[in-house]
Amino acid sequence: MKISYNATAQLVIALIVILVVSILINNLTLNLIKTGLGFNFSWLFRPASFALAEHPLPYSPSDSYAWALFIGWLNSLKVIFYSLLLSTLIGTCFGLFRIGKNALLRLVSAGYIAIIRQTPLLLQLMFWYFVAILGIKKSIISPMGNLLSISNQGINLLGVTLSAEFTSLLLGLSVFTSAYIAEVIRGGINSVNKGQWESFRSLGLEESIGLYKIIIPQALPAILPGLTSQYLNLAKNSTLAIAVGYSDIYAINDTIINQTGRPIEAFIILLLSFLFLNLFISNGMEVLNSMVTRSTKL
Amino acid sequence: MGNSYNYIKYIKRVAFSNALDSIISLTILSFGISALVNLFKWLVFSANWSVVSLNLPLYLFGSFPGDQLWRPGLWISLFAIFSFITLWGPRWSWLRKSLPFLWVSYAPLGIFLLAGGFGLSAVESQNWGGLTLTILLTSCSAIVSLPLGIALALGRQSTLPVIKNLSSIYIDTMRSLPLIAVLFFGQLLIPLFLPVGLEINRVSRAIIAFTLFVSAYIAEDVRGGLQSMPKTQKEAGEVLGLHPFQITYLIILPQALRIALPSLTNQAVGLLQNTSLMAILGLVELLGVGRSILANPEFIGRYIEVYIWLAAIYWIVCTVMALIARHLEQQMTLDKKDF
Amino acid sequence: MPPIVKATNLTKSYSKGIFALDNVCISVEPGEVLVVMGPSGSGKSTLIRTFNGLESFDSGQLNILGITLEGHNNDERNIHRIRKRVGMVFQQFNLFPHLSIIENITLAPIKVQKKKKAEAEQNALLLLSQMGIESHARKYPSQLSGGEQQRVAIARALALKPELLLFDEPTSALDPERVNEVLDAMRKLAEQGMSMVVVTHEINFAKEVGDRVLFMDSGKVIETSTPDIFFLNAKHERSRKFLNQIKK
Ligand SMILES: Nc1ncnc2c1ncn2[C@@H]1O[C@H](COP(=O)(O)OP(=O)(O)OP(=O)(O)O)[C@@H](O)[C@H]1O
Ligand SMILES: [Mg+2]
Fold this sequence. Notes:
heterotrimer; B: MetI-like fold; 2 domains; C: 248 residues; alpha/beta; Rossmann fold; six-stranded mixed β-sheet; four-stranded antiparallel β-sheet; 9 helices; 10 strands; globular; binds magnesium ion
């Protein structure tokens, strides 16, 4: 009786889903026939014939669409990687300020988090690009001699040139994500039993040593899952690159769709790219997680 | 006398407890004060706010026909009124009881007021814009994705493999995609999946795409709440002879939603912020209005004023939403010790 | 009258070789109060949870109120029929924290027995006054003390007018000075002729209210005696050892 009821329910649901999906696919085929596009991937190997301002590997417009997509991939990875580092650094600082002893630092940190989290990322990116970088009036600012020079062409740091687009994306993503990371760090540290603070203080350990040796190791298991989801968000948010004209995987996909008019194939490529990227990040964090749990369990 | 002495001691403890602390505090104070002074000077004397004041109706209502502005105007005012009643309104119980209903009907009311029909003249969706469109996108997507998200969460918890797997695949795939891709392909692909000849406007496509996206995130938040429920609550329902559906709807779900409320609030605030993505996908919601004004030769280069103004509006609306949610949280608290 | 509970050779194990129930045979007569005692992990909870289908079992026969329960894959409707007629009170009260006291009690009468709200509430208030806590009707569980919450839980179980009440260590989670208010409520129920199976370590309650004491160890029934015999003159060495331990 019970089993048959469940089986019927599942069958009904499965049938409904199949029905809906087949109606959708039917509509899709009809529409594709109407527009005369069809479905294939052979265009991937035709020349892309658009230029890319930034390419870590050699690229020219005569290279194939597939190669252009790969370059886009590398550009995405590059900005994700550096934003990840920078946002973790900034976020950790503000997270620690937020729970620290100094009331002014707490205030500054709270204000920072409130402003960054309650305004849209896209707006912030535009601000970094159009106001903070392109808006630089003086030709070159060099606060640290030859080490660092900033202009509306981008940043030159220790001889490495970063484009205006990359710089604004990097700063925008990092600052935005850092506010969320600060909250993750604060939550993690607050989750450690208050008695632990009292016990290392009663042993005469300094605040900074106690924090580093006692509190943070215990907070990490609570911090890492939150951090993982912020990193995943960062990776997904990096596609807003298109708003500042940085050629990441999504922006190149967009250009390709405009040129070839093949949204479905491009969508599949993008979907696979991101499934892969997500797997990559979550597995990386999983490894980190197991390292941490192993080291804290002793 | 003794009082001010205590203040001094307090300030010393929280900001000047040792040399490093004092240096940090003094630095923040000097930088902070000079930054605030400069900001104030700039805001009052240097900034040219005409880019805001001359375009106020655009920011609020987009290019809605001039003689019909009362419609979006009324709708936005209702948002302010409902928020005010929720947060500070009188404690009349009939009013309090009708609040959930008022909020639920807010989105449909908005569609009616903007699109027209039933006696109101029709206004094309191309003319919707500004803060009105931002709130419309947010409220419509939220009101549909909440039940959808709950259904997906329950589906993922189901013991029936077909339902469980379908829900999981949907949730995981959606959550691995960037929102801009979902929105962009929503604009391109949704028409392809509709019957030949049926067309829907860009706003509806955007709402569908947002709903598909957000419901996957809501599902995971709700699932977190469901998972944190102790098994004993289910058992207590079972021994009373309640049906499994009744246990879910009357006992488990209300508590799980209460637990998930803070993360659901974050989703709502995130949704409102993310509607700004439509600015680069062809809608003139709040950020889109800002972009189109900046493209107008008359206001070229007034980036800072426009961005600060937009940030302020977003900030206020998001903060109001967060406040309402916190209020709701307190109302729904399981730990009703303060009554 | 036929027994309310009739179990023969009830056996259950969670993991191979370790029995939570090992050939348990008991019966509970109408109006009887059966007290179940035994060391931790001996299978007391498992036993009474099979009585309303919260736990399955591997072999043996079980008949509750004339309805036969299978070990596994029971017909949902049979379990439902039993649960409508058997009430249960848990160690941790398990009240619904999002519902007020009166809503906790009226939930099942309204949703399961389809009673009218007014009627259900009237009955709930009556039950609450029997438990001596009618003034708390509109409060929420977290505003009540443990003893009060447990009395609400009893009232909630009684609201369905059950023919058998199961108690799983109802006073173990209470402060010592709160234990008696709950035991007194249970004593009154016994005086009214309610059939009850009570897992408890309260010796005085077992002596004064219990009709029989069932002692379990490692899933086996070691002995079943009247309280007089069990507490003064237990038949088994194992029982005497246990009694010595809990008297300390
Ligand atoms: N869900 C379960 N999974 C595996 N083993 C279980 C489970 N529940 C109970 N057991 C085991 O079954 C045995 C009997 O448990 P039961 O809870 O019935 O004991 P008890 O007499 O109620 O003990 P206590 O006085 O501690 O409540 C124990 O050995 C216990 O470890
Ligand atoms: Mg037990």
